[in-house]
């Protein structure tokens, strides 16, 4: 089948909600839905996470990571980890798990390499978005990090489908942007029940326009994407700043500049990136 026809078929399926997720992703989706319930409290969340030994171990490891363990006091229980991280951070980490599970299904070395690079890109964008939100645009940092985690979820879904659609990753990378990214991405975002403000910010990525200085969540995400040191392996976004050009982006922020803020925040960005790469 022609590659463009494949994009169109997958996009049509996504728009109808006919998405095929692996079993482990479906289990994580059920966990995410439970955590999104405002009546889900710490004890209930801890029990849900303890039901998955790998997720339980990961949650404790994240809680003990430098980004969330400023005191240096290590903890060993899931409940204590959930308490330290808080529900919003926990929701972001479960979203990160879902995204990585989508990209980690293939046994094809080429697909696995693309998934690994796409996740590394995603982790950089999420970490940068959190810091840019807090220090520059003053939108909610947790929401910005969450948006960074899910901003390439359509691409991860594409990678998960590569085995069923031979040749879909070949050819001009621009085809993905023109014929697949937005349509498939919208379907996956809807399936994951992504909050509307985050979905709108991801839509801004597909439009590719941002203001400088950045103001909105979409601007925050676009700037973080431009500044990420690892690019997406699926495409080069039209009009996106090159990595060389990204290093020249600067503007006044209060009494400082973007360069100053990023230099001051380099350790924080690296700590958040390290958590997402666990």
UniProtKB/TrEMBL annotation:
This is HDOD domain-containing protein. Residues 21-208 form the HDOD domain. Pfam families: HDOD. Gene3D superfamilies: Hypothetical protein af1432. It comes from Rugamonas brunnea.
């Amino acid at each position: 089948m022609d590659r463009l026809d494949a994009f169109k078929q997958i996009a049509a399926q996504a728009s109808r909600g006919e998405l095929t997720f692996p079993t482990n992703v479906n289990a994580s989706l059920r966990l995410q839905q439970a955590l999104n319930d405002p009546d889900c409290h710490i004890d209930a969340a801890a029990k849900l996470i303890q039901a998955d030994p790998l997720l339980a171990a990961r949650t404790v490891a994240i809680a003990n990571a430098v980004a969330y363990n400023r005191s240096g006091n290590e903890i060993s229980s899931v409940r204590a980890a959930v308490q330290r991280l808080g529900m919003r951070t926990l929701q972001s980490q479960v979203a990160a798990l879902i995204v990585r599970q989508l990209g980690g299904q293939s046994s094809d070395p080429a697909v696995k390499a693309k998934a690994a690079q796409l996740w590394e890109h995603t982790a950089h964008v999420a970490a940068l978005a959190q810091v840019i939100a807090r220090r520059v645009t003053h939108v909610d940092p947790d929401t910005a990090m969450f948006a960074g985690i899910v901003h390439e979820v359509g691409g991860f879904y594409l990678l998960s489908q590569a085995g069923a659609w031979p040749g879909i990753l070949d050819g001009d990378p621009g085809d993905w942007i023109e014929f697949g990214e937005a349509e498939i991405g919208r379907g996956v975002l809807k399936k994951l029940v992504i909050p509307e403000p985050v979905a709108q910010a991801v839509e801004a990525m597909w439009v590719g326009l941002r203001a400088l200085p950045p103001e909105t969540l979409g601007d925050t995400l676009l700037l973080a994407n431009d500044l990420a040191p690892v690019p997406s392996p699926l495409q080069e976004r039209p009009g996106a700043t090159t990595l060389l050009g990204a290093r020249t982006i600067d503007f006044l922020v209060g009494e400082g500049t973007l360069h100053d803020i990023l230099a001051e925040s380099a350790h924080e960005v690296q700590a958040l990136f390290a958590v997402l790469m666990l």
